[in-house]
Design a protein that fits this description.
The protein is mainly alpha-helical and 368 residues long. It has a single domain (5-364), classed as Orthogonal Bundle (Farnesyl Diphosphate Synthase), CATH 1.10.600.10. The chain has helices at residues 19-41, 46-57, 62-73, 80-104, 115-126, 132-156, 162-192, 200-227, 232-259, 262-265, 271-274, 280-288, 291-300, 308-320, 323-344, 350-364, and strands spanning 108-109, 112-113. Helix 9 (232-259) runs antiparallel to helix 15 (323-344) and helix 12 (280-288) crosses helix 14.
Amino acid sequence: MTPDPSTHRDVHPVDVEDLRVRVHKALEDFLTAQADVLERVSPDCVPMVEYIADLVRGGKRLRPAFCYWGWRGAGGPDTPAIAQSAASLEFFQAAALIHDDVMDGSDTRRGMPAVHRRFATLHRGSGWTGDGERFGLSGAVLAGDLCLVWSSEAFLTGGLDAAALARGLPVFDRMRTELMGGQYLDILEQAVAGQRHEGAADRARKVIKYKSAKYSVEEPLLLGGALAGADPGLLAAYSAFGLPLGEAFQLRDDVLGVFGDPEQTGKPAGDDLREGKRTVLVAYALENATPAQAAIVRTLLGDPHLEAHGVEAVREVILDTGALDRVEQLIEDLVGQAHDVLATADVADEVARSVLSGLVSAATARAA
């Protein structure tokens, strides 16, 4: 009997099949086991697990959802093993977030102090010797590395059979390598921005592709599909669906990074501006800015002490140059592309098609 997709219309797409709960339990069980391992090393390692656990508990579970429904869309059955292996993507994302916050010097993440700030606070509060900030950075690098290790372990020990893992592992490995390349392009762009003014929007979109779009949507879908043994046609459709959606997802995040409500984003207003992020939004603003407007952006962008009036000044330039409208139109166009591909994709499970459609909205909503 074919499941009725309409039964899931009033449920958040991540909650269909109780996936959010199942992913959360898989993460908690894994973290409990790892806490025992590290406590045997030394009780002094406990804060490392606590900080990672707090960060992981705050995720939206979008990446595991794309992996799970990529599996289901390829005809894979609903099993505990796929939910547990999909949960491994939360550790991979945690690694990326921890390291990204170190590189950007971010103070907060998901409404809490960033991991490197928590380690620095631990150092100061304990009255230890040495540089607390350096200790914080070092602790965060190790915590991020630990999350990378755990992502592999959680993926490989989730319970999927060897044949499925053999199909999925190349996707998993490629995803992680591509993200590191994207992260490097991101820091490179900030370093050379003063020398490369032409093509800034195209470079920003390339950063999005490899730093966010692929590992947020496309690769989790391909991972689920590969694990289930999807044919090349469906995998191609997953890519054609996932890449534009992943880009739209990051563009929405960039907009929220400048105009979002801190209560919803978990970061201070304008934090992306303080961090000097060379986003498509900024590139579009500089393309159409007057010399005076460009001077405002270039002077204030990347100022770690940027105050509210400075944030507002950059916002005004973004609005007055039409950059926000252009990004909103680009998001709309990319979302349309994703929907068009999904409508004709040879998805084996109509519930999966329905949930993937819902995930489009969940990933690109105007609120965090």
